[in-house]
UniProtKB/TrEMBL annotation:
<dbReference type="InterPro" id="IPR001789">
    <property type="entry name" value="Sig_transdc_resp-reg_receiver"/>
</dbReference>
<protein>
    <recommendedName>
        <fullName>Protein-glutamate methylesterase/protein-glutamine glutaminase</fullName>
        <ecNumber>3.1.1.61</ecNumber>
        <ecNumber>3.5.1.44</ecNumber>
    </recommendedName>
</protein>
<dbReference type="GO" id="GO:0000156">
    <property type="term" value="F:phosphorelay response regulator activity"/>
</dbReference>
<feature type="modified residue" description="4-aspartylphosphate">
    <location>
        <position position="60"/>
    </location>
</feature>
<keyword id="KW-0145">Chemotaxis</keyword>
<feature type="active site">
    <location>
        <position position="195"/>
    </location>
</feature>
<dbReference type="Pfam" id="PF01339">
    <property type="entry name" value="CheB_methylest"/>
</dbReference>
<keyword id="KW-0597">Phosphoprotein</keyword>
<dbReference type="InterPro" id="IPR000673">
    <property type="entry name" value="Sig_transdc_resp-reg_Me-estase"/>
</dbReference>
<comment type="function">
    <text>Involved in chemotaxis. Part of a chemotaxis signal transduction system that modulates chemotaxis in response to various stimuli. Catalyzes the demethylation of specific methylglutamate residues introduced into the chemoreceptors (methyl-accepting chemotaxis proteins or MCP) by CheR. Also mediates the irreversible deamidation of specific glutamine residues to glutamic acid.</text>
</comment>
<dbReference type="InterPro" id="IPR008248">
    <property type="entry name" value="CheB-like"/>
</dbReference>
<comment type="function">
    <text>May play the central regulatory role in sporulation. It may be an element of the effector pathway responsible for the activation of sporulation genes in response to nutritional stress. Spo0A may act in concert with spo0H (a sigma factor) to control the expression of some genes that are critical to the sporulation process.</text>
</comment>
<keyword id="KW-0378">Hydrolase</keyword>
<dbReference type="InterPro" id="IPR011006">
    <property type="entry name" value="CheY-like_superfamily"/>
</dbReference>
<dbReference type="GO" id="GO:0050568">
    <property type="term" value="F:protein-glutamine glutaminase activity"/>
</dbReference>
<dbReference type="InterPro" id="IPR035909">
    <property type="entry name" value="CheB_C"/>
</dbReference>
<dbReference type="GO" id="GO:0005737">
    <property type="term" value="C:cytoplasm"/>
</dbReference>
């Protein structure tokens, strides 16, 4: 990756003058970032986009004249640029944030509650802006390469009992291109681990359920892991699997004996799946920042299971798949458009 020499140019879009000022001050306090403009709504942002040529746009969800969701769809259709959504924890805010992520926004941040400090917002905002600046929004929406890049031969086909999909930045959009492609007759349960704060994994599951033949739901404690079902790990919890009397059920915990920054963590769930299903575990690593999933994928391979990953060209952020690939723990790498058909073929 080429190191940037110029500050990241940001366009701040929010209907609140107070919030615009807060965001601008936070971003300009970081020497690696420079706010090049502000906009009061989506329409204002679209008019300023071509003139200012920002590297990243921060976009409020709920605004008059043109809301953030509508603006994101127009930006991605005309002049794709990495967009970070700023969402309130309202029903409309969470729903439209998920839709914006599906439409091409690369990430999102929840606004602080009224009266709360902005210290956490400052740290999160600058980190996500820096990550978004290198996101490949065009490559993600175009579907990437169509060829297959073999890494190692498969240890098995047709012998899997569970599929674990791990993803982070760019995940909601990627999952909409994977989960709905599974037929109603798909014979193996799927568990999805998507990095998200509390309040968003439920709406994500509902959106996926509406567009899928399989039943998609946010996992609850004690849910049976069964065929025909996609379980989405709830934010704020660690999802483990527990085998008892011939059935495997979901066990949700606040904390586990594993050092991780994420709740849910891909490593935690993949490790639990590998210990439960051994060689019958199929791991899938999709777009995302960081290296969560590498340790879990390593154990899946040690137990004789299989791991496939999304290729660099179709990722929004080639972090998690890169980490697993460079650790030598992938059996094969595929563009996003071929992930589902490869899982179907293997199962």
């Amino acid at each position: 990756m080429v190191k940037r020499t110029e500050p990241i140019k940001v366009l701040v879009v929010d209907d609140s003058a107070v919030m615009r000022n807060i965001l601008t001050q936070i971003l300009n306090d970081d020497a690696a970032i420079r706010v090049v403009g502000i906009a009061r709504n989506g329409q204002d942002a679209l008019q300023k986009l071509s003139r200012l040529s920002p590297d990243v746009v921060t976009m409020d969800v709920e605004m008059p004249v043109m809301d953030g969701l509508t603006a994101v769809k127009k930006i991605m259709a005309v002049n794709p640029v990495p967009v970070i959504m700023l969402s309130g924890l309202t029903a409309r805010g969470t729903r439209e944030t998920i839709e914006a992520l599906e439409a091409g926004a690369v990430d999102f941040i929840t606004k602080p509650a009224p009266g709360a400090g902005v210290e956490d917002l400052a740290s999160t905002l600058t980190t996500k802006v820096k990550g978004a600046a290198s996101a490949a929004v065009q490559k993600c929406t175009s579907g990437g390469r169509q060829d297959v890049i073999p890494v190692r031969s498969y240890s098995q086909t047709g012998l899997f009992s569970v599929v674990i999909i791990g993803t982070s930045t760019g995940g909601p959009s990627a999952l909409q291109q994977v989960i709905p492609k599974f037929p109603r007759t798909f014979s193996v349960p799927i568990i999805v681990v998507q990095h998200m704060p509390p309040g968003f994994t439920g709406p994500l599951a509902e959106r996926l359920d509406k567009s899928s033949e399989l039943k998609v739901k946010e996992a609850a404690n004690g849910d049976e892991v069964m065929r025909g079902t996609v379980l989405v790990a709830p934010a704020g919890k660690q999802l483990l699997l527990e085998k008892n009397a011939g059935t495997v059920k979901i066990l949700l915990k606040d904390n586990v004996n594993y050092q991780t920054l994420f709740k849910p963590s891909v490593d935690v769930t993949m490790t639990s799946a590998a210990n439960t299903f051994q060689s019958r575990t199929l791991g899938v690593i999709l777009t995302g920042m960081g290296n969560d999933g590498t340790q879990g994928a390593t154990l899946i391979k040690e137990k004789g299971g299989t791991v496939i990953a999304q290729d660099e060209e179709s990722c929004v952020v080639y972090g998690m798949p890169r980490a697993v690939f460079e650790a030598g723990q992938t059996n094969a790498v595929f563009p996003l458009v071929k992930i589902s058909q490869e899982v179907i073929r293997l199962v």
